[in-house]
């Protein structure tokens, strides 16, 4: 009898395994993210550090003629800056190794205009190294910004400068460990010092730098680094410096030509499209939403009382991370080489507000039901995947079920204000729109609508809702959904 039971259960297990094996995952849809882009999405929030002689000139952009000795922080503390960013919930740091003024903050062989001439640490300092070490000590991802425009270099505008710029990148790529971003500003050409000529030099940024050759070097030396520029390559500029993506924001993008041009070249785009992206665009090119914590990117003592509040930062978070992009917050060390107390306080308050808002996910306490489950296989694609904390698992439906619904029920009423929902990005951005209903007075009532989910979509309901049930209905999708997470707060 015991042998018969073993045989029965063994056969049952074999049949169940065979059935599960026949339930295939959904096919990918549209442009797809690379591994480095997926890692960038998981970072979600990082900071951008501006600290050059410009800080000591109390200017917003350096002209390139400041004496190297002007750069002399009195109490530089990279760990203090990184810890303050971490308290704000940030996970990465991009350091401006060279801004438009051309002053290199590492001891480089490519130009005498560098930190070894500053007198800081008797010419033995390396600020890129210190930020790299401080970032990695706190578990931060580290990236580099090296401006292609150089208002100091006498060779700017010639091919010799392009060679110099690539050598600068090579030094940065090979000395400071793995990078998660190689960041390149769109400001190019204009007036500058240029070795004493003090003139304007205009270049065609679409052709002058020979970006294809430069990016090939990036891919070789830093294969995990996402390339950022105004129109992308891996990550696109959102099109403003307010930190805001559009209400509907796609992670896919097709570059469109500037007005009056027949086609879009490298580094060119009609920026009005950047906040929105392109539905079913040719490339996976999500939006980075950059904004300074202060009015500008560099420290100015008169702005100590105008630092953005935690509440303002939270609003920006909802319009950046909450719309499928990433938040890149500009931090400006003061002349000590530390963040001012006002900046530290704002970051701490923002981090506390994030923690308080998203501390308790009521979706994980609900009874969850789906109108449909792929292959009738809850083990692989069931609703338990929505709240398991694993971004690699997801709920999905059969291919022909493109507009399903999810319901969340509780035994008692809860007051809800936020919905967070994420798609399984390795399968592409699939959902066009959705609607949220609340169970009130014995019926479902619409309380919110959303679009373009992607990496993360956060809806803040117009007012707090007291209810025992929430329903999420997919209202537009060309293919079946693949939802990796739902949060209700």
Q: How do the strands and helices of this protein lay out in sequence?
A:
Blueprint: H1 2-22, H2 35-43, E1 45-49, H3 53-57, H4 78-87, E2 92-98, H5 127-137, E3 141-146, H6 159-175, E4 181-183, E5 190-192, E6 199-201, H7 211-221, E7 226-229, E8 235-237, E9 252-253, E10 283-284, E11 287-292, H8 310-320, E12 326-331, H9 341-357, E13 367-370, H10 378-381, E14 395-396, E15 405-423, E16 433-440, E17 443-451, E18 457-476, E19 482-488
Parallel strand pairs: 1-2, 1-12, 2-3, 3-4, 4-7, 7-8, 8-11, 11-12
Antiparallel strand pairs: 5-6, 9-10, 13-15, 14-19, 15-18, 15-19, 16-17, 16-18
Helix pairs in contact: 4-9, 6-7, 8-9
Main attributes of the structure:
10 helices; single chain; TIM Barrel; Jelly Rolls; about 500 residues; elongated; eight-stranded parallel barrel; seven-stranded antiparallel beta sheet; alpha/beta; 2 domains; disordered N terminus
């Amino acid at each position: 009898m015991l042998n018969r039971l073993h045989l029965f259960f063994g056969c049952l297990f074999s049949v169940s395994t065979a059935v599960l094996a026949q339930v295939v995952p959904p096919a990918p849809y549209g442009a797809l993210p690379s591994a480095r882009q997926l890692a960038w999405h998981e970072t979600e929030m990082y900071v951008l550090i501006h600290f050059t002689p410009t800080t000591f000139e109390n200017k917003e952009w350096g002209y390139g003629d400041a004496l190297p000795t002007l750069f002399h922080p009195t109490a530089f503390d990279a760990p203090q800056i990184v810890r303050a960013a971490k308290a704000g919930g940030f996970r990465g740091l991009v350091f401006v190794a060279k801004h438009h003024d051309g002053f290199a903050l590492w001891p480089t062989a490519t130009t005498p205009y560098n930190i070894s001439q500053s007198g800081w640490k008797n010419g033995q300092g390396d600020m890129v190294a210190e930020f790299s070490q401080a970032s990695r000590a706190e578990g931060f991802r580290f990236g580099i910004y090296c401006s292609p425009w150089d208002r100091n270099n006498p060779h700017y505008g010639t091919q010799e400068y392009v060679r110099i710029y690539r050598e600068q990148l090579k030094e940065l790529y090979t000395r400071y460990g793995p990078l998660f971003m190689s960041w390149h500003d769109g400001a190019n050409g204009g007036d500058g010092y240029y070795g004493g000529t003090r003139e304007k030099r205009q270049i065609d940024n679409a052709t002058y730098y020979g970006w294809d050759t430069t990016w090939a070097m990036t891919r070789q030396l830093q294969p995990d680094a996402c390339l950022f520029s105004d129109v992308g390559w891996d990550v696109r500029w959102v099109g403003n410096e307010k930190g805001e993506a559009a209400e509907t924001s796609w992670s896919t993008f097709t570059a469109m030509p500037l007005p009056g041009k027949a086609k879009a070249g490298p580094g060119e785009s009609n920026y009005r499209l950047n906040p929105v992206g392109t539905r079913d665009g040719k490339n996976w090119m999500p939006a980075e939403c950059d904004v300074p914590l202060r009015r500008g990117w560099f420290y100015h003592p008169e702005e100590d009382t105008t630092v953005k509040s935690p509440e303002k930062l939270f609003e920006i978070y909802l319009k950046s991370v909450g719309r499928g992009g990433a938040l890149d917050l500009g931090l400006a060390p003061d002349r000590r080489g530390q963040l001012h107390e006002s900046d530290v306080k704002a970051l701490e308050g923002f981090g506390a507000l994030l923690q308080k808002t998203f501390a308790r996910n009521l979706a994980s306490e609900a009874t969850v039901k789906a109108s449909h489950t792929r292959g009738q296989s809850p083990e692989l694609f069931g609703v338990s995947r929505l709240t398991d904390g694993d971004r690699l698992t997801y709920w999905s439906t059969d291919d022909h079920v493109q507009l399903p619904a999810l319901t969340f029920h509780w035994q008692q009423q809860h007051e809800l204000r936020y919905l967070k929902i994420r798609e399984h990005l390795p399968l592409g951005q699939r959902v066009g729109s959705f609607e949220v209903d609340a169970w009130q007075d014995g019926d479902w009532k619409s309380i919110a609508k959303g679009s373009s989910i992607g990496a993360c979509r956060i809806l803040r309901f117009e007012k707090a809702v007291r209810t025992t049930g929430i329903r999420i209905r997919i209202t537009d999708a060309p293919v079946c959904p693949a939802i990796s997470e739902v949060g209700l707060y």
